[in-house]
Amino acid sequence: MIHEVDEVLKDLLSGGALAGSGVDITLDAPTRDWAARRNAPTINAYLYDIREDVSRRHRGHISVRDERSIVVKRRQPPRWFRLSYLVTAWTRRPQDEHRLLSAVLATLLPHELLPPAELPESLRALGLSVPLTVAGIQSEARSLAEIWSALGGELKPSVDLVVTAPFPAVPEYDAGPPVTEGAAVRVRELPGAPGAETARDPGTPAEERAHRPHHLAAGRAERRR
């Protein structure tokens, strides 16, 4: 899932206000050594934090349907993860870097919600839109100053981008066949059970009742009333 979000982000940054600019789009860690090797204008999107968005966690299961809308599989809901990117511009002059960051904002702001049609196959199959948070309030545990210190570089202006993407849950399991007929009640006689035993006198053996005259049985029935 993470590498697919990387590709989506690279495609976004290559279009919009940056289309045809010839600016390189990279995902490398912007260390001091990496910066020293830059010889062309570059937009760098460095993935610096991955954590689950627990507010989006759901229980239960999701039904997977075929082309006839029949449930063929079931799976658990996907888990959502916040992928935080540090987007920076690299040129020889700060003014040019600021222009590139402005172009980054102009490119990303119209895409704060990516529909399934704009996602790679595995994410598109989930049928879920992917939200983007552009230059929002940083809610991660590490500050940008700590990130730059860990990278061994100097603090630069950057755009904080958070992509909240679903991670498909596994495993899937097959669903039972669809119901094709309505409910019905079927009654059958148990093997060896007498058909009318409940209407007979429980205190009289079956052989005696079989030879008893009909008027005696009727008289006993009258006395019971």
Itemize the secondary structure elements and their pairings.
Blueprint: H1 2-14, E1 24-26, H2 32-36, E2 42-52, E3 62-65, E4 71-75, E5 79-90, H3 94-108, E6 113-114, H4 121-124, E7 130-134, H5 144-151, E8 159-167, E9 173-174, H6 206-211, H7 214-224
Parallel strand pairs: 1-2
Antiparallel strand pairs: 2-5, 3-4, 4-9, 5-8, 6-7, 7-8
Strand order of the largest sheet: 1-2-5-8-7-6
**DSSP helical segment count:** 7
- What pattern of helices and strands is seen along the backbone? HEHEEEEHEHEHEEHH
Mean pLDDT: 77
The protein's oligomeric status is single chain
For the biggest sheet, the summary is: 6 strands, mixed
Q: Outline the low-pLDDT stretches.
A: 196-200, 215-225
TL;DR?
This protein has 225 residues and is α+β, with helices and mostly antiparallel strands. It has helices spanning 2-14, 32-36, 94-108, 121-124, 144-151, 206-211, 214-224, and strands at 24-26, 42-52, 62-65, 71-75, 79-90, 113-114, 130-134, 159-167, 173-174.
Describe this entry's structure for a reader.
With 225 residues, this protein is α+β, with helices and mostly antiparallel strands. The chain has one domain (2-174). Helix content is 28%, strand content 24%. It is built from seven helices and nine strands. The chain has helices at 2-14, 32-36, 94-108, 121-124, 144-151, 206-211, 214-224; strands at 24-26, 42-52, 62-65, 71-75, 79-90, 113-114, 130-134, 159-167, 173-174. The strands form two sheets. It has a six-stranded mixed beta sheet with strand order 1-2-5-8-7-6. Strand 1, helix 2 and strand 2 (42-52) form a beta-alpha-beta unit. The radius of gyration is 36 Å and the shape is elongated. It starts with a helix and ends with a helix. Residues 196-200 and 215-225 have low confidence and may be disordered.
